[in-house]
Amino acid sequence: MWESLATLDRRWIFLAMALAVAIPILIDRPFPESPTPQTKVVFDTVENLPPGSKIMLALDYDPGSAAELAPMATAFVRHCCLKRHKMYFLTLWPAGTPMIDANIRDIIKDEFADSKLVYGEDYVNLGFKPGNEVAIKLVANDLRKLYTSDVEGTNLDDIPMTRNINNVRDMDLVLNISAGYPGAKEWVQYAGTQGKLRLAVGCTGVQSPQMYPYFPDQVIGILAAIKGAAEYEAALGAKYEQYRDPTKTVAIKRMAPQLVAHLLMVGLIVLGNIVHFTTKRKAGTGAGR
Amino acid sequence: MTREAKIGYGLLLVGVLLLTAKGLFTEKGLAKAYVKPDRVAASKEVITYIGAKADEPQAVWSPSRTIGVWVAAFLTLACFSYLYRDNVCYKLAEAVIVGVSAGYTMVVGFWDSIIAQLMVELTPKLMQSWALPGIDVNKPPDWTYLVPLILGGMLFLRFVPKIGWLSQWPLAFVVGTFAGLRLVLFLDADFVSQIRNTLLPLIVLVDGRFDFWLTLRNWGIIVSLLSCLMYFFFSFEHKGVVGRVARFGVWVLMIAFGASFAFTVMGRITLLTKRFEFLFYEWLRL
Q: Quick check: A21 and B259 CB within 8 A?
């Protein structure tokens, strides 16, 4: 048995992983989430800012990472709409523009249609700008050098909520949702060092370990991957009853496949080690490698 | 025909039959996309179509978007097929992704870099009348932008063998600029600030009372930091106390790598979850 396990075709493991992810999706039974301090501080900051505060939402991700980051962006935008903060959307990713459009269409225009949020007064889409970290530095120092108009081509001086905005320090909070380069790390390096800036980041799992050293001095909070998004949704649901609705907790739902898949991974790692050491002991030194 | 091929074709046939049955004999059927009319922008009257639910007012069935869902499902399954073995479907999906990404990036680069950043500064009136109506037409041309235009053009000189060496000048400019920019800000954000972040009290008092967990956390950070630094300190041989501390540093690094790997796994599983959600709910409508 040990020999057959040691030479097991890896495609059986792929199949097991597919089932571990697919079955919880079909069963659709979410598990409870509670926010960690890194997430709670971001939620509390958005919650405690006075209505009408200026929040920059830099959505630096594309469809490839939307699975992890779109629920996070949606939860942020929902929270900002609930608090009636002024939202300034921008992206440094060429494929990030549709991500902004989706949030504006689905959340601001559709879900919050009754709030009658007005473009140019409650939210503005500055769109995509190339330049990576140079663009961040310009936003930090002099936004007008980079942005003369919004995504529709309207001059910033003709838009009420951008008329008096000159740089990122005019914002009460910057929320960056990042899938890689340019993203959260560059916002810390190029905007965070330009004077006192309240910066919170939401990032992919791959990026998260790089971001933790910046917490809590250089970033006020971190939403790490889908877990961070689920925690934010949980915090939102704890405060606002309407957001306990399962159709509005995508990230919490996605944590169920995570749990089962991680249990499978742990089981496979333990089993792999048992097989390795057992076959090694049986066959003598060097066997099973 | 080999036994494996027979099994493969058999499974494919079963799949097609099941799909047909699902489409014909179930209430929900298979993927169908709907759209509804909308304005491009709040200030404009131009009509466009956006995604909608079937039961929304004004929603109409969109054949093109429905085909899009089926193409997306095929490409997803084609990518998954690589887990079994490399095959022509996977190669096709790979080529489509590379081609679409390159084309999209090129178009966005043209409009957002060359037009919106460069040409708008050199010929503002022309750009205002042609592409960007919102820009300030009274602004005079900024001729300093000829420098990036010329440097950008010089990049293409690599295709002219005799003067190909000139294409290295703009590269030198880019490398030099970024090196300078990054050095200063990296020193600030990732060196000085990081040192400051690790200057932590070893005994933490909150409201005058000893906080055991914060104290433990600070000790953990400082001991881990020092032991990792010791591992990369090669002026002494790693023996005795130095060796034991360096050994502890290796363990800390291993834990960090493990955490990093676990985060990566979490990200990848989320991507898989999203693709399954798409297949189950949007395509198969389970």
A: no
What average pLDDT score do residues A29-33 get?
Answer: 89
Q: Which of B83, B104, B196 sits opposite A14 (nearest CB)?
A: B83
Give pLDDT, residue B41.
Answer: 59
pLDDT(B261) > 80: yes
Q: Closest-CA residue in chain B for A123?
A: B42
Residues B116 and B178 reside in one and the same domain: no
B216 touches chain A (CB under 8 A): no
Query: Residue B47: what pLDDT?
Result: 72
Q: Are residues B122 and B151 in the same domain?
A: no
B50 in a domain, yes or no? no
Looking at the structure, tell me whether residues B66 and B137 fall in a common domain: yes
Any CB–CB contact under 8 A between A29 and chain B?
Answer: no
Q: Which of A13-27, B50-64, B214-228, B243-257 has the lowest mean pLDDT?
A: B50-64
Report the C-alpha gap between B33 and B73 in whole angstroms.
Answer: 13
Please check whether residue B38 is in contact with residue B48, taking contact to mean a CB–CB distance below 8 angstroms: yes
Q: How buried is residue A100: exposed, middle or buried, by Cβ count under 10 Å (0-12/13-18/19+)?
A: buried
**Radius of gyration, CA atoms only, chain B:** 30
CB contact under 8 A, A225 and B267: yes
Does one domain contain both B81 and B18?
no
Instruction: Give this complex's ipTM.
Output: 0.91
Cβ contact A94–B109 (<8 Å): yes
- Does B166 share its domain with B128? no
Whether A150 sits inside 8 A of B134 (CB atoms) is yes
CB contact under 8 A, B286 and A148: no
Least confident of A168-172, B44-48, B223-227, B266-270: B44-48
Based on the domain organization, do B134 and B173 belong to the same domain? no
Q: Which residue, A260, A204, A269, A188, is CA-closest to A16?
A: A260
Give me the CATH code for the A37-248 domain, please: 3.40.50
Interface membership of B277 toward A (CB under 8 Å): yes
Residue B52 falls inside a structural domain: no
Q: Is residue B283 part of a domain?
A: no
List the beta strands (DSSP E) in chain A. 54-60, 86-91, 123-128, 173-178, 199-203, 221-224
Report pLDDT for B43.
57
Model confidence, pTM: 0.89
> B132 lies in which domain range?
62-141
Same structural domain for residues B66 and B135?
yes
Write the residue in B189, B267, B272 that is nearest to A189 by C-beta: B189
CB contact (8 A) between residue A254 and residue B270:
yes
B274 at the A interface (CB within 8 A)? yes
Number of domains in chain B: 4
Q: Which residues contact A160 (CB under 8 A, 6 or more apart)?
A: A120, A121
Instruction: Indicate the average pLDDT of chain B.
Output: 90
Q: Is residue B48 part of a domain?
A: no
